[in-house]
Specification:
Blueprint (H helix, E strand, L loop, with lengths): L1 H39 L28 H7 L2 E13 L9 E13 L6 E7 H5 L9 E6 L17 E4 L5 E2 L2 H6 L11 E2 L1 H13 L2
Antiparallel strand pairs: 1-2, 1-4, 2-3, 4-5, 5-6, 6-7
Helix pairs in contact: 2-5
Length: about 210
């Protein structure tokens, strides 16, 4: 009996290093797979040349800092309110190497970059549309748009901070995020809705403080 126990102890002592070695190799293999995946799959993939409004194809892992109204107003080349009248998807071509969406607005009020009563068509990279920057025909909005990129594309400043819904009474509605971002603005701070003239005044103040 004593001899059997001794034999079992010897066998177990020989197998133990093999098990430890196998587990170590498995952990090393798993670590290598994780490392390879991280290298081959970057966290953020940038969009093609869409100017300062660039957004990742996949949502970023970190959110941008809060941008106040002054920052939004200074970054915008075009500021207006209007109604969406047409939406058209354009495939990539030789002259335009990426797929885009053309959105046409009938401009009702304008502060910068366009005139009231005109029709304005902007081009947006399809990736932004897929990521949530969408419009629908008949929708009324107030937009702060970046300058055109080299490809003639634009997007809302600090999306979604540079976009506002307009209700049936013509009031510009401020979301919870707007309330946080603009809480220090002397004109818009603390308001859940405002007139277009309030925005024009706020933009003028932001310009005078440059």
């Amino acid at each position: 009996m004593h001899g059997r126990s001794l034999c079992l102890l010897v066998i177990l002592s020989l197998l133990a290093p093999l098990r430890v070695g196998s587990q170590t190799e498995r952990r090393a293999s798993d670590s290598q797979i994780t490392s390879d995946f991280a290298i081959r799959w970057p966290t953020i993939i940038q969009t093609p040349d869409v100017g300062p409004g660039t957004s990742p194809v996949r949502p970023p892992l970190r959110s941008p800092g809060i941008i106040g109204f002054q920052g939004v107003a200074r970054a915008a080349r075009t500021i207006f309110s209007g109604t969406v009248t047409a939406i058209e998807r354009h495939p990539a071509t030789h002259g335009q190497p990426i797929e885009t969406v053309a959105i046409t607005f009938h401009v009702e009020n304008a502060i910068r970059g366009t005139t009231p009563g005109s029709d304005l068509t902007i081009s947006q990279w399809i990736g932004l549309w897929s990521g949530g920057q969408r419009y629908r025909v008949g929708e009324r909005v107030l937009l702060f748009l970046y300058p055109l990129s080299k490809l003639g594309l634009t997007s809302c400043v600090a999306w979604p901070t540079g976009r506002f819904n307009v209700d049936g009474q013509g009031r510009i509605l401020l979301s919870a995020q707007h309330l946080v971002s603009f809480r220090k603005d002397p004109v818009l701070g603390g308001k859940s809705h405002a007139r277009f003239s309030d925005f024009a005044l706020a933009v003028r103040r932001a310009s005078e403080e440059e």
